[in-house]
Amino acid sequence: MQAIHQSLKGKQQAKQQPANTPGPNRGKKPDFRAMLQNKEMQAALGSGVMMLIAWGIAPYFATLSVILYIAAYAIGGWTKAKEGIETLVKDRDLDVNLLMIAASLGAAAIGYWNEGAMLIFIFALSGALESYATERSHKDISSLLALKPETALRIEDGQMNVVAIEDLKAGDLLLVKPGELIPADGVVYRGSSSINQASITGESMPIDKNTGDEVYAGTVNGEGALYVEVTKSAEGSLFGKIIKLVEEAQAEVPDSQRFMERFEGIYARIVVGVTLLVIAGTPLLLGWTWNEAFYKAMVFLVVASPCALVSSIMPVMLSAMSSSARRGILFKGGAHMENMARTQVVAFDKTGTLTMGTPQVTDILTASHVSREQLLSAVASVENLSMHPLARAIVEQASKENLPLQEAEHVQSITGHGIEGTVHGAVWKIGRLDGTAVNGATDWEKVCARLEQEGKTISVVTVDGEFAGLIAMRDMIRPQAAAAVKKLESMGVRVAMLTGDRARSASVIAGETGVSMVYADLLPEDKVKQVQRLREQYGHVLMVGDGVNDAPALAAATVGMGMGLSGSGTAIEVADAVLMNDNIEEIAWVIGQARRAERTVKHNMWFAITVILVLIAGNFLQDVALPLGVVGHEGSTILVILNGLRLLR
């Protein structure tokens, strides 16, 4: 290794992003500097400046003021006019953009230049705010993409080579210098450092990593150099899994927004029809002058346009998705955020979701003629050649206790029992509890019964055919599991557990976590049927799982949520949302955030409808002035957008 350290001098450093690359952080408020850098915001503000200058010089330089007004119209209205014309040409439909442009041009046609410019300015401003919400959401969701490493420093035969990320494979040894991005998922082979995982998991504080700890591509190394052994290719890494999520999240819109888009086209035709009827019909039917009829028609065109209604949904959903992404929860689209708000039941898979998914040794009990250290060292020496999860748990326990692994001979698997091998001439057998090994030993039978009641898996150890002891293991409960269940139930959400494990083990986990509904001994197809029953009985169901066997149930639920760190690629692909940090305590928060979003949408829509109805009535009954109509209508649009942006906090 000394030679490796020396070889680093003079070598080209891998191309990486700076260590201070911003990641998600909680409680982040709207960035007004970023808002001002938005091109649509700049156009809107430019239009407003032109309008104010034109209004100020109008009494003295009438012609110049008209030129400035035209400039204000062009600067603020060009983008919206282009969007409206594209909708008209491509989709043969009307939208709110064309309505606003027509109203502002109509106001100018009858001499109300300032009112038309004001309409353009406020309409452009509301559009810029909505665009900012969209950009902010996409930035928070896809900030991970900006952290994608491009190259890595691979150690080959004691030499350092810069290689492309795509060329890495499992087993490669990499050097990650302080401040660099970790290029691939792997395990720390040597070294220690703190890792900033905020971009992947949403954790606000760096995590200390030492030899044997997992690290993830796209996270930032701290102050120490790390030697990392690659465990997954670029495509199979955690970073690779979320690329699809980002693309899908930016493309999908909620069902309510789709309805609003269809409604907008129909409503726009009605508004245009009524506007033409006012212009052509009221002089004949009510005796209005043409100027009076045209003026009221322009006011109606402004106040009746559905700007605020159209802006009531997407800024809210995008803001909610953005704030969720900063806490490590990625949604594939606004539709799933919308469905999340209606959750009545959260169904957890047990292994890897409520529990850590990896068994750990909890009890080592020995007969009088065998010491604890002797038994654990011998058993670990035999199990060291096995990849079974229970075997790995025993080997890991021996490592924690610094017990040496000895040479094991004649190691073989025994069908129906377990594994055996010879250590220092003694034959050690390790296998499942079958009732014969402790038969007749009343005390040991009671111990086994107690351990089984605690939901533990028992392995019986014999040496040269004589009972030597017991090793009990259990999949450990996630530290936050009980708190997560309690939070959900305090919100009125029922909690269920779906597992393929035995009822006894499942009931123990349920008792310790507080889960009230337990469904055990389920095959993957049984989980699907149970999810369907829960939907029929209670309504909307959120299914949380991590394994390939959970994928059908995730698809059957109203919303499927996969575990980002420990979840399989299949589960993440099928899921509608991904919990990147595996912190199930965040589920209650995201349901609450989704419910806040739903309430905000309803408030926005009722407010928008009320303002439209009041202004329409005022136009025909109380002669609402065009400037008041502009401020009232476009002001309501800005208010509903700002109300949605509150969810960014």
TrEMBL record:
Pfam families: E1-E2_ATPase, Hydrolase. Residues 1-31 are annotated as: Disordered. Keywords: ATP-binding, Cell membrane, Ion transport, Magnesium, Membrane, Metal-binding, Nucleotide-binding, Phosphoprotein, Translocase, Transmembrane, Transmembrane helix, Transport. The chain crosses the membrane at residues 43-76, 96-129, 266-288, 294-318, 605-622. It is a multi-pass membrane protein. It is found in: Cell membrane. GO terms for molecular function: ATP binding; ATP hydrolysis activity; ATPase-coupled monoatomic cation transmembrane transporter activity; metal ion binding. Residues 9-23 have a biased composition (Polar residues). Residues 147-247 form the P-type ATPase A domain. InterPro entries: ATPase_P-typ_cyto_dom_N (IPR023299), ATPase_P-typ_P_site (IPR018303), ATPase_P-typ_TM_dom_sf (IPR023298), ATPase_P-typ_transduc_dom_A_sf (IPR008250), ATPase_P-type_domA (IPR059000), Cation_Transport_ATPase (IPR051949), HAD-like_sf (IPR036412), HAD_sf (IPR023214). GO terms for cellular component: plasma membrane. It comes from the Bacteria. Belongs to the cation transport ATPase (P-type) (TC 3.A.3) family. Type IB subfamily. This is Cadmium-translocating P-type ATPase.
